[in-house]
Structures are given as structure tokens and as C-alpha cells.
Write a structure and sequence with these properties.
The chain is built from eight helices and nine strands. The protein is an alpha/beta fold and 266 residues long.
Length: 266
């Protein structure tokens, strides 16, 4: 087991997304998963019914004790929920000079449509975390649209959006294209030096709950294991693709992935 990854995210009682998805993905890819839980959600494949927040000070204490004892090779940030938590985490990051690479998945909207990030927290994420502490930003189309305030309907729009997102301060952007209407899903990775486009045949499945959480934690695991950004993204995309193809079929709504599928090449 190599690659210590801390997931800062919300708990999904249905086990398909959030902290639960992160722990499964990190472990499946050979990493060590630690957590800082930001909120508790009551949810299943049909949606989120309730959210209980965690106090910001306790969120930060979870991060601090892990970093100071176990140590970290990467951090994945998911659902932060409230501006108070965003500011508390950012204040802690500002105070440290020993932070590993940080993958930020700007979780704003649940698969079923429920809001997972308050409006004041959205601006705080941009101003305090994306602009200063983000190695890789991994938004989907709806999240990117909220961040840049522009509709994205074509691949060309995606390319322009990735450039705008880079202007907010991250070292790299992985813009996920699954929400565009097409038979081929295109994901775009942009850095200050490179541009990569990953095209995949669309898998026709309703079992896609937690794909964003799973991908971002998978990429963070690769970075924690000293893989390059390119290799981390390529492995993460393939892991998610196979997890969708082998989904267990649970639930009446957007079902979970199969995080434990066997991947002999990894």
C-alpha cells in the first residue's frame, strides 16, 4: 500500500459518492485513505433527503491530526457545503508549508439535483482555494458553468471554459464532458504547458452516482503514488469507466459504481 490520500468531503449514507466512494477508490488503487468529514448526508440512489453540517473547527482538526502524524502525499477536496468550512480549511492551508498536491472537485450539485454547496461558499471556494491551493480542478459541465457564468453546450465551449478556469489560478483543469449530449464523452485536461482530450464511447447506464468523486480521488491517488498528472488522469478515467461497466445495479435511481472491480493491469 502506497500513497497516503486525505479526502475532505461529505459522507454519503448510500455509499456511492463522497467519503465512501473516495475510500473505496483510493484503496482499490493501492493507496491509503484518510478522511476529514465535512457534512453528513442522508441519501440514496434517488436523491438527498437531509444534510447535517460538521463544525468547521472539527473539520480542520481532522485534517491537522492526520497530517501531523500519518502524513499525506495528496489531498482530495469534495463537498465543503458551507462558506465557514471553506474559510476554515483555507485558513489552515494558508498556515502550512507542508501541503501535498491538492485535487479539488467543486461539488455543487448532487446527481439527483440537490444543492450541495451554498452560494456564498461557491465564491469562497474560488477566492480561497481554487486561486491559491489547487493543483488540479475537476469540474463537470454544470459546475464549470456555475464557476464561469457561461453556458457550455459544445466541445469548443469546453475548451474555452477550461482556459477560463485556468485563469482562476489552478495548476491544471480536468473538465469532464459527460453532461454534453453526444455518443462520445470528451474530457479535457489543460495545464499551462499541455492540452489533452480524452474521448470515450458513452456507456448507456443510469448507474453513474459518484463518478466525479471517484475520478478525483483516483487521480489524487495517482499523484500520491508519484505518477505524473497525465498518467494519473489516464488511469483514473479507465478505472471509472470499468467501474461503470461493472456497476452492481443497486437502487431505483442513479445507482453506484463497482469500486471493487478487478483491474489486473493496475
Amino acid at each position: 500500500m502506497r500513497g497516503r490520500v486525505l479526502s475532505i468531503a461529505g459522507s454519503d449514507s448510500g455509499g456511492g459518492a463522497g467519503i465512501q466512494a473516495d475510500i473505496k477508490a483510493i484503496t482499490a488503487l493501492g493507496g491509503y485513505a484518510a478522511t476529514s468529514i465535512t457534512a453528513l448526508t442522508a441519501q440514496n440512489t434517488e436523491g438527498v433527503s437531509a444534510i447535517m453540517a460538521v463544525e468547521p473547527e472539527f473539520v480542520v482538526e481532522q485534517i491537522r491530526v492526520v497530517l501531523d502524524d500519518i502524513g499525506l502525499d495528496a489531498i482530495k477536496i469534495g463537498m465543503l457545503h458551507r462558506a465557514e468550512i471553506v474559510h476554515a480549511v483555507a485558513d489552515f492551508f494558508d498556515s502550512r508549508d507542508d501541503l501535498p498536491p491538492i485535487v479539488l472537485d467543486p461539488v455543487m450539485i448532487a446527481k439527483g439535483g440537490a444543492s450541495l454547496l451554498s452560494e456564498d461558499a461557491e465564491r469562497a471556494v474560488v477566492d480561497r482555494l481554487i486561486s491559491k491551493h489547487t493543483t488540479l480542478l475537476t469540474p463537470n459541465i454544470p459546475e464549470a458553468e456555475k464557476l464561469i457564468g457561461t453556458q457550455i453546450t459544445t466541445l469548443s465551449d469546453m475548451k474555452n471554459a477550461a482556459i477560463q478556469l485556468m485563469g482562476m489560478g489552478p495548476n491544471a483543469v480536468l473538465l469532464k464532458g459527460g453532461h454534453l449530449e453526444s455518443t462520445v464523452v470528451s474530457d479535457i485536461l489543460t495545464t499551462h504547458e499541455e492540452y489533452h482530450q480524452y474521448d470515450h464511447p458513452r456507456i448507456m447506464s443510469r448507474h453513474t452516482h459518484g463518478t466525479g468523486c471517484t475520478l478525483s480521488s483516483s487521480v489524487a491517488t495517482g499523484l500520491a503514488q508519484n505518477l505524473s498528472l497525465i498518467d494519473s488522469v489516464e488511469r483514473g478515467l479507465r478505472y471509472v469507466e470499468l467501474a461503470i461497466e461493472n456497476a452492481p445495479g443497486f437502487g431505483r435511481g442513479h445507482g453506484p459504481l463497482n469500486h471493487g472491480h478487478m483491474i489486473g493491469i493496475f
